[in-house]
């Protein structure tokens, strides 16, 4: 393979070469048989284009607006855990890359840099991803810290009452680092300096009783808009709109939770039809090509998030690697827009793609 990667999949290979096997497996792996992990990518392959010709595409505008924030392209950084396992600069490097690409970074609850360090490192628009712990005052403290440090929205990840079964991590006896933001807040192993097995600890600390009524509580402790991440059905999409969320992220957690969840690109339209434009819908899972970004937008998403490719960029080439991953995906997306006859994201419609059910 050439030293300089030309697409996101080649960054994955560089990351594999750069990382200890245990960490690479932690990033790359999915739940159980990894059926959904493969499907997240392969379901994109089954969607084809209905490209339009003889449209003036001499100028292409990739920019879009998400919750009032104008970004350079509908490509956002998903929350992923422990960036310091990929690079010593961790989430600080990722945030700098987000700022220089003019996009949004969603900081993971399980970050290895603190809320304050990430906030101080760049002027990127940042959202904060939240898990709710049994000790609600800990969650409230983190929400307040995010708000105080200029984070613009909360992303409540709602597909994780317990952690999925990731067998590579079990085999590797993967030990995750301490949760930086929780230092001094928890008395359990999770915040210890000696590291912890987040898998075991999370099941002790994460509140599996969390339910729709708790959204009211969350809204009572913050003025930030709340997005829900992990929606895969029309039923839950309608509930989310009813409780007043600011946005929905169609996600199966990068196939790390429930194996045989649908590929997210296959679940997207059901959610789009249920929501009827009332709140913005984002999606993540398996986005590896600019054509994937286009397909997600054609099926009704306003933007996609990318998880693993960011971590692979970080592992392969640090901050610059993250930048390259985002710019590469933007370049591919721009080319797709030109070749399908779409000079701006507003021009991308349902008629530009054909799904498997519609095959002729
Ligand atoms: C994740 N994801 C995730 N999601 C979340 O809400 N909080 C988290 O801390 C994490 N951590 C995490 C770690 C790793 C290593 C991965 C791969 C994923 C899920 C993430 O936000 C996103 O949904 C998926 O990564 C999207 O799929 P792709 O782009 O990785 O295929």
Automatic annotation (TrEMBL):
<keyword id="KW-0576">Peroxisome</keyword>
<dbReference type="InterPro" id="IPR012133">
    <property type="entry name" value="Alpha-hydoxy_acid_DH_FMN"/>
</dbReference>
<dbReference type="GO" id="GO:0010181">
    <property type="term" value="F:FMN binding"/>
</dbReference>
<feature type="binding site">
    <location>
        <begin position="307"/>
        <end position="308"/>
    </location>
    <ligand>
        <name>FMN</name>
    </ligand>
</feature>
<dbReference type="InterPro" id="IPR008259">
    <property type="entry name" value="FMN_hydac_DH_AS"/>
</dbReference>
<dbReference type="GO" id="GO:0042742">
    <property type="term" value="P:defense response to bacterium"/>
</dbReference>
<dbReference type="InterPro" id="IPR013785">
    <property type="entry name" value="Aldolase_TIM"/>
</dbReference>
<feature type="binding site">
    <location>
        <position position="253"/>
    </location>
    <ligand>
        <name>glyoxylate</name>
    </ligand>
</feature>
<feature type="domain" description="FMN hydroxy acid dehydrogenase">
    <location>
        <begin position="1"/>
        <end position="358"/>
    </location>
</feature>
<feature type="binding site">
    <location>
        <position position="251"/>
    </location>
    <ligand>
        <name>FMN</name>
    </ligand>
</feature>
<feature type="binding site">
    <location>
        <position position="229"/>
    </location>
    <ligand>
        <name>FMN</name>
    </ligand>
</feature>
<feature type="binding site">
    <location>
        <position position="166"/>
    </location>
    <ligand>
        <name>glyoxylate</name>
    </ligand>
</feature>
<keyword id="KW-0285">Flavoprotein</keyword>
<dbReference type="InterPro" id="IPR000262">
    <property type="entry name" value="FMN-dep_DH"/>
</dbReference>
<feature type="binding site">
    <location>
        <begin position="79"/>
        <end position="81"/>
    </location>
    <ligand>
        <name>FMN</name>
    </ligand>
</feature>
<dbReference type="GO" id="GO:0050665">
    <property type="term" value="P:hydrogen peroxide biosynthetic process"/>
</dbReference>
<dbReference type="InterPro" id="IPR037396">
    <property type="entry name" value="FMN_HAD"/>
</dbReference>
<feature type="binding site">
    <location>
        <position position="256"/>
    </location>
    <ligand>
        <name>glyoxylate</name>
    </ligand>
</feature>
<feature type="binding site">
    <location>
        <position position="157"/>
    </location>
    <ligand>
        <name>FMN</name>
    </ligand>
</feature>
<feature type="active site" description="Proton acceptor">
    <location>
        <position position="253"/>
    </location>
</feature>
<dbReference type="Pfam" id="PF01070">
    <property type="entry name" value="FMN_dh"/>
</dbReference>
<dbReference type="GO" id="GO:0003973">
    <property type="term" value="F:(S)-2-hydroxy-acid oxidase activity"/>
</dbReference>
<feature type="binding site">
    <location>
        <position position="131"/>
    </location>
    <ligand>
        <name>glyoxylate</name>
    </ligand>
</feature>
<feature type="binding site">
    <location>
        <position position="108"/>
    </location>
    <ligand>
        <name>FMN</name>
    </ligand>
</feature>
<feature type="binding site">
    <location>
        <begin position="284"/>
        <end position="288"/>
    </location>
    <ligand>
        <name>FMN</name>
    </ligand>
</feature>
<feature type="binding site">
    <location>
        <position position="129"/>
    </location>
    <ligand>
        <name>FMN</name>
    </ligand>
</feature>
<dbReference type="GO" id="GO:0005777">
    <property type="term" value="C:peroxisome"/>
</dbReference>
<keyword id="KW-0560">Oxidoreductase</keyword>
<comment type="similarity">
    <text>Belongs to the FMN-dependent alpha-hydroxy acid dehydrogenase family.</text>
</comment>
<keyword id="KW-0288">FMN</keyword>
<protein>
    <recommendedName>
        <fullName>(S)-2-hydroxy-acid oxidase</fullName>
        <ecNumber>1.1.3.15</ecNumber>
    </recommendedName>
</protein>
């Amino acid at each position: 393979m050439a030293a300089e990667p030309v697409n996101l999949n080649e960054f994955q290979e560089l990351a594999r070469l750069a990382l200890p096997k245990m960490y690479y497996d932690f990033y790359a792996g999915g739940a159980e048989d990894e059926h959904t992990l493969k499907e997240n990518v392969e379901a994109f392959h089954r969607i084809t284009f209905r490209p339009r010709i003889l449209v003036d595409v001499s100028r292409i505008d990739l920019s879009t607006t998400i919750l009032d924030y104008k970004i350079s392209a509908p490509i956002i950084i998903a929350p992923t855990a422990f960036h310091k396992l990929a690079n010593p600069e961790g989430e600080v490097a990722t945030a700098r890359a987000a700022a220089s690409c003019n996009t949004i970074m969603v900081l993971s609850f399980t970050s290895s840099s603190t809320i304050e360090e990430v906030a101080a490192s760049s002027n990127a628009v940042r959202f904060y991803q939240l898990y709710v712990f049994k000790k609600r005052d800990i969650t409230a403290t983190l929400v307040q810290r995010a708000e105080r440090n200029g984070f613009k929205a909360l992303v409540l990840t709602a597909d994780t009452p317990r952690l999925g079964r990731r067998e590579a991590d079990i085999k590797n006896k993967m030990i995750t680092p301490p949760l930086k933001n929780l230092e001094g807040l928890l008395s359990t192993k999770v915040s210890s300096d000696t590291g912890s097995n987040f898998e075991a600890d999370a099941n002790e600390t994460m509140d599996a009783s969390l339910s729709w009524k708790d959204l009211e509580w969350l809204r009572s402790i913050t003025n930030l808009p709340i997005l829900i991440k992990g929606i895969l059905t029309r039923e839950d999409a309608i509930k989310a709109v009813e409780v007043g969320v600011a946005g929905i992220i169609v996600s199966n957690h990068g196939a790390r939770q429930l194996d045989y969840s649908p590929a997210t690109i296959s679940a997207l339209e059901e959610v789009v039809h249920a929501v009827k434009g009332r709140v913005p819908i984002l999606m993540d899972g398996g986005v590896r090509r600019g054509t994937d970004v286009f397909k997600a937008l054609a099926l009704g998403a306003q933007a996609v998030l990318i998880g693993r490719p960011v971590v692979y960029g970080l592992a392969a080439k640090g901050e610059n690697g993250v930048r390259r991953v985002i710019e590469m995906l933007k370049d591919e997306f721009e080319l797709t827009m030109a070749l399908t006859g779409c000079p701006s994201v507003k021009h991308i419609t349902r008629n530009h793609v054909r799904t498997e059910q519609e095959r002729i």
